[in-house]
Structure formats: structure tokens, C-alpha cells
From TrEMBL:
The lineage of its organism: Bacteria, Bacillati, Bacillota, Bacilli, Bacillales. It comes from the Bacteria. This is Uncharacterized protein. Keywords: Membrane, Transmembrane, Transmembrane helix. It comes from Paenibacillus cucumis. The keyword Transmembrane helix applies. The chain crosses the membrane at residues 12-33, 85-106, 118-141, 161-181.
């Protein structure tokens, strides 16, 4: 199934998808993220957001939940199931399209072509993080021990995988340039 997904992405992705993904991503960065950040700041009293941190602990998550107050926690949960369901799809779309376009020059039999599935792992960690943090916020002041301990791990993995997904664009560009230079020489 994953092989078919990866192959299908290579088959259907083209420059038009790159343009669309880039425009959507750019609009989110320029307009939606600042609006959402301001809205979140107002609702939570300017408190930090655990999902924007790279490292934090379960205790930090409970401290944030306390700082937010009841209305802030409610706003946080609502944002996780509205905005934070769309935003990960936006960066997923951009990364999958770019990686698929860059690595499509590799031989069909190369296992490196599966790299276009890497952003899906980051997206999955983001969804687990949203669920975990929302559950902790929802149940606060009750403790949700296992979830509270796992949520920071999901966040760390999310950021590592998203950064890795952006990082693989660089060798992808090199691979594509070398491929087309070799093709022109022939």
C-alpha cells in the first residue's frame, strides 16, 4: 500500500502542483499563521504553546494548561481541531509535492524514492501531538499520565521529521540538477 502511494505521488505530481502547493503554503505563512497566532495569544493570555516548542515535559504541559485557564484551554482544544488540522495538511502537501518532484528522477527500483513518504510521518506525529495535548487540556486538572508523557515525544518527533523533510530537499535538488546535466550531455 505504501509503495502504491509513493509511486502514485511520483506519477501525478507535476509543476502545476508545485505552484499550487507553494501559493497555498505562502498564503498560510503570510496571512493565516499570524492571524491564528494573534487569536491564540488573546485566548490563552499570551501563553506559550506546547506544540510550537521543540522540547518540553509533561510538567510543562500541565503548567501551560494551568496558565491558560478554562477558556484558554477550551480555545486551545478548538484550535487543535480546526486550524491545526488544516495547517499540517498544508505543509504536508508542499513537502510531498516538492520531494516527489525532486526525487522522481531516481530509478523506479530505488528505495530512496520512498523518501516522499517522510512528511506523512511528521504529519502523523503532529496529529498524535494534537490529540495528546488536547486530551491533557480537556481533562485538566485531572492527570492523564501516559498521554502527558507521550505528547512531548510526539512533538519532538514531529519537529525532527518535519526538519528532515525540509532537509531532504537539498540533496533532491542536487540529484535533479545532476540528472538533467547528464541528460543534456547525452
Amino acid at each position: 500500500m505504501l509503495g502504491r502511494l509513493s509511486s502514485g505521488l511520483y506519477r501525478y505530481v507535476n509543476w502545476k502542483w508545485i505552484v499550487v502547493a507553494t501559493i497555498v503554503f505562502g498564503c498560510f505563512i503570510a496571512f493565516v499563521l499570524p492571524w491564528q497566532a494573534e487569536k491564540s495569544k488573546e485566548a490563552t493570555g499570551g501563553g506559550e504553546s506546547p506544540d510550537s516548542s521543540f522540547l518540553y515535559s509533561a510538567d510543562d504541559l500541565y503548567r501551560v494548561a494551568e496558565h491558560y485557564g478554562e477558556s484558554g484551554r477550551s480555545a486551545y482544544i478548538q484550535a487543535r481541531f480546526t486550524f491545526d488540522m488544516i495547517w499540517p495538511l498544508v505543509y504536508l502537501f508542499l513537502l510531498v509535492v516538492l520531494i516527489s518532484m525532486l526525487y522522481r528522477v531516481l530509478p523506479v527500483t530505488s528505495r530512496w524514492r520512498w523518501i516522499n513518504l517522510l512528511p506523512f510521518m511528521g504529519w502523523g506525529m503532529d496529529m498524535l501531538e494534537n490529540l495528546g495535548a488536547s486530551l491533557v487540556m480537556f481533562r485538566y486538572p485531572e492527570r492523564t499520565s501516559v498521554i502527558a508523557e507521550l505528547t512531548p515525544v510526539f512533538t519532538l518527533l514531529k519537529w525532527c521529521i518535519i526538519y528532515a523533510s525540509f532537509a531532504v530537499l537539498v540533496p533532491g535538488i542536487v540529484i535533479m540538477v545532476v540528472h538533467y546535466l547528464r541528460k543534456r550531455k547525452v
